[in-house]
Amino acid sequence: MGIKKYKPYTPSMRGTTTADFAEITKSRPEKSLIYTRKSSGGRNSNGRITIRHRGGGHKRMIRIVDFIRDKHGMAARVTAIEYDPNRNARLALLIYADGEKRYIIAPLGLVVNDEVMSGNNVEIKNGNATSLWNIPPGTPIYNLEMKPGKGGQIARSAGNSATIMAKEEPYAHVKLPSGEIRLIKLDCFATIGQVGNVEHDSISLGKAGKSRHLGRRPWSRGVAKNPHDHPMGGGEGKSSGGRHPTTPWGKPTKGYKTRKSKTSDKYILKRRSK
């Protein structure tokens, strides 16, 4: 993947950068692996806005991605690398030996006609999925399960990977992309490699309209509002808030601890680096 820049023929194009999509080999998704879902606009089943600043945007088809990788011992050939509008990673379309098609998150370096496989007796190479028992320490992994058989939940976004630091039955010490070191059961599956599209962080939208295309509506700073609209509003001239940051309803934000359950503390060996 590369970054594409534009000649500044309009002011907004001066700062705009996009992906060059050089790795994409197929423009249309596989019909058997997509379904439609109406955009919620941030509203719940009662029609009330529960997530602000969402709405509009381009229509999207949901791709059914195989996070579990449960077709063990059967080889699959990569037939296409595709764009997914619902995530920043690319998808690889697999065709298994029995003819079944599935999407997986494409790792860096995976190309068309590569063969991948999942199971306990597979080669340690890009795109193969196996349990942590079989993965040597220091190997980059992604799509990592937290519970055996539940499907990958960790390290699924562009450029991310986790690393096995050590093994101590029945757990592996895994360093997550955040820097946290966590105990994960050795029976959990993970995929070898690093998620592709690593330069996604370098992309600049360039204009407000691009955010609207993505379904993100504008938002105003609390200090720019009036006192009856926000606890941080008001003041003569520009103000920096004058109090700890809060939501419009007075709930503390920015550093306020919100974890209710501490049952997973015993699995965290080292907190994420701040």
Element layout with pairings:
Layout: E1 3-5, E2 17-19, E3 34-36, E4 61-63, E5 76-82, E6 91-96, E7 101-105, E8 115-116, E9 129-131, E10 140-142, E11 144-145, E12 152-154, E13 162-168, E14 171-175, E15 181-185, E16 189-192, H1 208-213, E17 268-270
Antiparallel strand pairs: 1-2, 3-4, 5-6, 5-8, 6-7, 9-16, 10-13, 10-16, 11-12, 13-14, 14-15, 15-17
Give a brief rundown of this model.
The chain is an all-beta fold.
List keywords for this structure.
mainly beta; single chain; 7-stranded antiparallel beta sheet; 17 strands; 24% strand; 274 residues; 1 helix; OB fold (Dihydrolipoamide Acetyltransferase, E2P)
Could you please describe the fold and organization of this structure?
With 274 residues, this protein is mainly beta. It has a single domain (3-201), classed as OB fold (Dihydrolipoamide Acetyltransferase, E2P). Helix content is 2%, strand content 24%. The protein has one helix and 17 strands. The strands form five sheets. It has a seven-stranded antiparallel sheet with strand order 9-16-10-13-14-15-17, with no helix packed on it. A four-stranded antiparallel sheet has the order 7-6-5-8, with no helix packed on it. A hairpin with an 8-residue loop joins strand 5 (76-82) and strand 6. It is globular.
Quaternary state reads single chain
For the record, the count of structural domains works out to 1
What is the third-level CATH name, the topology? OB fold (Dihydrolipoamide Acetyltransferase, E2P)
Strand content: 15-25%
**Any guess at the CATH architecture?**
Beta Barrel
Q: Which structural category do the helix and sheet elements fall into?
A: mainly beta
Total count of strands: 17
CATH secondary-structure class: Mainly Beta
Radius of gyration: 22 Å
Distance between the termini: 29 Å
Trace the largest sheet across and list its strands. Answer: 9-16-10-13-14-15-17
Roughly what is the average pLDDT, rounded to an integer? 95
Largest sheet: 7 strands, antiparallel
Helix content: under 10%
N to C succession of SSEs: EEEEEEEEEEEEEEEEHE
Q: Treating each run of at least 4 consecutive H or I residues as one helix, how many helices?
A: 1
Gross morphology: globular
Name the CATH homologous superfamily: Nucleic acid-binding proteins
Unreliable runs: none
